[in-house]
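Re-running CoA ester lyase to confirm reproducibility after the cluster update. Everything else is unchanged from the original entry.
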Amino acid sequence: MPIRSWLFVPGDSERKMAKAPDCGADIVILDLEDAVAPGRKEEARALTRQWLCAREEPTKDAPDYWVRINPLDTGYWHYDVEAALIGKAAGLVVPKAAGPEHLKRLVGVLYELEPRNGIAPGSTKLLPLVSETAQAANAIAAYGLPGNELPRLTGLTWGAEDLSAAIGATRKHDERGRWTDLMRMVRAQTLLAAHAAEVAAIDTLHADFRDEDGLRAAATGAFADGFSGMLAIHPAQVPIINDAFSPSEEQLAEARAIVELFSANPGVGALQLDGRMVDQPHLVQAKKLLAQAR
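Result of re-run:
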């Protein structure tokens, strides 16, 4: 089933975690990195582990729970992974991931820890943040290259805040409010690499959670560009994101018509539909759109 909304929830806030099951997000990410001060890492890790272990048996509409661990060049990440797997988190969000090779150490640890916690080997998924350092941004294309396949990889996502800080950029948007050329490049690389790797392309967050119109425009544009979901930092953003990444009935009806037309005319490369030509790229796009319907 398509994953549209990925909501970050601070791993040190029991109050906010308690609200997570009812927020409507497809994925809830319990955050042990940016949302937690260095002095509270251990407390947040323990709370996240306890909360995951105590949660009720998931229902059909319940979100999956992931954990954002700390970067792999810190002393925190191994303990984060242990806590996440004790709580049987569905996946891990990996910050500052500098390419597929950078993830192999983590993958090895997962294969060690999964059997100890009653988890099927290979079932813990990964979503790397692929653009938070200059080195990471330079390695984005590697995720889509032959030989770099990662079976655990669910998708790729990117972030502007950490990259800006890493390179000393003083802006992320231009005078018209659009991403700067650098950010647009990184965003496009993430999108293309995800499709090349045949995993989900997840757009970055809209930082102003009170700006509903801006979020709606960003999410609608991301869906039109080929992203399948979007990060969120506030529960109020979730319904807007879910709506933007859910094909409309009109879009679905047209997609079904295209698929049915080609099914009725096997072997034909191009056909007419409602007075216009449709060909194989239209068929591919129609099938992808139908796959995104929930």
